[in-house]
Design goal:
Layout (H helix, E strand, L loop, with lengths): L4 E7 H10 L4 E5 L11 H10 L4 E3 L12 H17 L3 E4 L10 H11 L3 E4 L9 H11 L3 E4 L10 H11 L4 E4 L8 H8 L3 E4 L2 E5 L21 E5 L1 H11 L1
Parallel strand pairs: 1-2, 1-8, 2-3, 4-5, 5-6, 6-7, 7-8
Antiparallel strand pairs: 9-10
Helix pairs in contact: 1-2, 3-4, 4-5, 5-6, 7-8
Length: 247
């Protein structure tokens, strides 16, 4: 099999550089991975594109939760896609659904058109659709470049049958990129049994903050107070080990 493309899901500029150093081929750049990934700041995107030698694909997701957006939220998504294009991003990642669990093709087409020459990836909104085959056809009609999926299950191992089905349904019209708890123990099996050509994973670690003084009385944003003094980082050793296990 040809070597797959490895996309690393990262948070912030330090994650971009760690993924690149460890052998990643591309990054999905996010903020707030605790919420599944939100749109990074303009400054983060700009610096990542300037510093990285590998393609940077920012996620376009204005909030956590579902993928049914208000009109104003959708306007911000269009504005963020246009900003990424102006900054020179190679691609963007997004997904919009209707209330009944189908792709919102009007909005998806508008995002693809705004992206212009950039590649477009539908994120795991795909995994929240009601009909896999219908969703693939919708993405093809909208001109989306690729779809990120765990086979509509929590993990790629659980979703292997649906991953194979997605690859077969796409039939080369849409790149299928597998995700879902990929690590050195699972990634080779997913690669060999699914037929995907691209693999996506995060290799995250929790490390202590550099703060030497802790205020025990305040926690920001409703999180556990201990969380104020922990950082979520991309572990380059885990990235390299996961890539090596797939080859």
């Amino acid at each position: 099999m040809p070597r797959p493309v490895f996309e690393i899901c990262v948070e912030g500029i330090d994650g971009v550089m760690a993924a690149e150093a460890a052998g990643g081929d591309r990054v999905e750049l996010c903020a707030s991975l605790l919420e599944g990934g939100l749109t990074p700041s303009h400054g983060t995107i700009k610096l990542a594109i300037e510093r990285a030698r590998i393609p940077v694909y920012p996620i376009i997701r204005p909030r956590g939760g579902d993928f049914l957006y208000s009109d104003l939220e959708f306007e911000t998504m269009l504005a963020d896609v246009a900003a990424c294009r102006a900054l020179g991003a190679k691609g963007v990642v997004f997904g919009c659904l209707t209330a009944d669990g189908r792709y919102d093709e009007t909005r998806m087409r508008a995002l693809v058109e705004t992206a212009g020459p950039m590649e477009t990836t539908s994120h795991r909104a795909f995994d929240m659709t009601r009909d896999l085959d219908e969703a693939v056809e919708a993405l093809v009609r909208c001109g989306v470049t690729r779809v990120l999926t765990s086979g509509q299950r929590d993990t790629a191992i659980e979703g292997l049958d649906n991953l194979r089905r997605t690859v077969e349904r796409a039939a080369g019209r849409l790149i299928v990129m597998a995700c879902g708890a990929l690590d050195p123990d699972t990634i080779a099996r997913v690669r060999s049994e699914s037929g995907v050509t691209e693999l996506h994973f995060a290799a995250l670690a929790q490390v202590p903050s550099g703060m030497t003084w802790h205020n025990p009385h305040v926690g920001m944003g409703g999180t556990e107070k201990s969380r104020e003094y922990e950082l979520t980082v991309t572990d380059p050793e885990a990235v390299a080990a996961t890539i090596a296990a797939a080859l």
